[in-house]
Write a structure and sequence with these properties.
Blueprint lengths: L9 H8 L3 H8 L7 H14 L4 H9 L4 E6 L5 H15 L4 E6 L8 H16 L2 E5 L12 E4 L10 E4 L1 H14 L5 E4 L6 H16 L9 E2 L5 H12 L7 E4 L2 H13 L9 E3 L5 H6 L3 E3 L2 H16 L8 E4 L2 E3 L10
Parallel strand pairs: 1-2, 1-3, 3-4, 4-5, 5-11, 6-7, 6-8, 8-9
Antiparallel strand pairs: 10-12
Helix pairs in contact: 1-2, 1-3, 5-12, 7-8, 9-10
Length: 337
Amino acid sequence: MPKKKRTVTIQDVAKKAKVSVSTVSRVLNGKVDVASDTQERILSVIDTLGYTTNLAARSMRSHKKNLVGLIMPDIAYPFAIEVMKGVNRAIAESEFDLLVYTTGDVRKSGRASHEQKYVSLLTNSISDGVIIVAPVAGEFYSDAPIVSIDPLASNPNYPAVYATNYQGAMEAMEYLLGLGHKRIGYISGRAELESSNRRLMGYRDALKQAGIPIDEQLIASGDYTTETGASGARQLLTLEKPPSAIFASNDQMAMGVFQVAEEMGLRIPNDLSVIGFDNITESKYMGLTTVDQFIAEMGYVATKMLTDIINKKHPENQTYKVQTKLVIRNSCMKMAA
């Protein structure tokens, strides 16, 4: 039976370099009170032995880790997967590696504190900067570069990438109104996010412009998950006067609408028109009409922005707006005259 390889420890490094453990620790923590020849010897031993903190050793030589962090609430959801596609493409074109942190669930309580903790951890000791996706924390206490995708506010105090959510929602609504729908249900996203609020505003303003009174009963609360899309659809479709169309503020919730429509024996689009927002891969196979916000492109742009900032190439603008586009498929139908 082969002998199991033992993990190299800080004690091994100290023994090989003929110094104390505390001296190795001081070098790893960037202390300047260690003689330069001793520091170089310790760093050389770390590289030779393959000590697990050789990333820190490398960064002390160049003052750069060549590593960026990506913080997102849930890597299993389609939105996150699309973001990852863009981030991955940018990383492949760069000299950087990527480290991903996640809370595992968009609904987990205490997410703001988790985000702040992760940002602090990553920027203080591990990475050169971070990308944070759909943050719920309003601010982060770090001097290191931070770029946000779908930020909490329209103009955060750090660079951000987001879609033209208001215009996208207006275009979706104008399309439904143009098909003759007047009673249009809406399922909102996470209330703490600017993207969700902008889409809701687009829904409301489109109705106002069309001269249609806003019926608050037609607005259901969601959180961008399939489950709340389904619960919102049940709430809307069991009204005394149910809507003829539902605008779900993301494709994930539109999936929930499809599920409930099938349960209730409603045909899409014959009995119910449905429109989403995101244009995730699944929407194509569902035949879902949706608003494309080019999520992968947002991931790519955010990563390029971050690596440029790390490399001292600061962007001209703090924010980058991705223009949305309506993608018409076969989930909506013109109302009978």
